[in-house]
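User: Hey, quick favor. My workstation is busy. Could you predict this chain's structure for me?
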Amino acid sequence: MANALDTTFTKGDAIAIDMPMTVSAVIIYLAIVLAGFVVVSIADSFAAKEIATRLRVSNAKGIFTQVTFRCHRSQCVHCFSALNIFFFVPPLTTVTAAEGKE
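Assistant: No problem, here it is.
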């Protein structure tokens, strides 16, 4: 995990975790620290606006999240969890024709 992060991010980049406290979350947390990045912990109970604020303030370059789908039965084959990883790219800048000319 730490090696994969190392190929995507630059040392010192902030990477957020918005997951319940699970074994996967701890492994991701430790991998971020081991690779030399800054961990931005976000409570999984936060609303979208609160999450967006923390991502903006921390200037996070990526976020790990987990989505769990459950139905009404406790042992259902249709229930599952999915780990999501999102990487943020800097905003694209546009060059107008006038700026491109010398």
